[in-house]
Amino acid sequence: MSYAQPHPRFSVLSNSSLSSGEHLSPASSSRFSLPSAPSITTATTPKPGVRPNIYDRPLNKTRNAEVSSAAFAFLFSEVVQYTQKRVSGINDLERRLNTLGYRIGTRVLELMAWRNESAAKAPKRETRFLPALMYIHTHVWRAVFGKPADAIEKSVENADEFMIIDNDPPITRNISVPRDMSSLSCSSFTAGIVEAVLDGLGFSARVTAHNTPIDQYPNRTTILIKLEKSVLEREEALKT
Question: Is residue 33 over pLDDT 60?
Answer without folding.
Answer: no
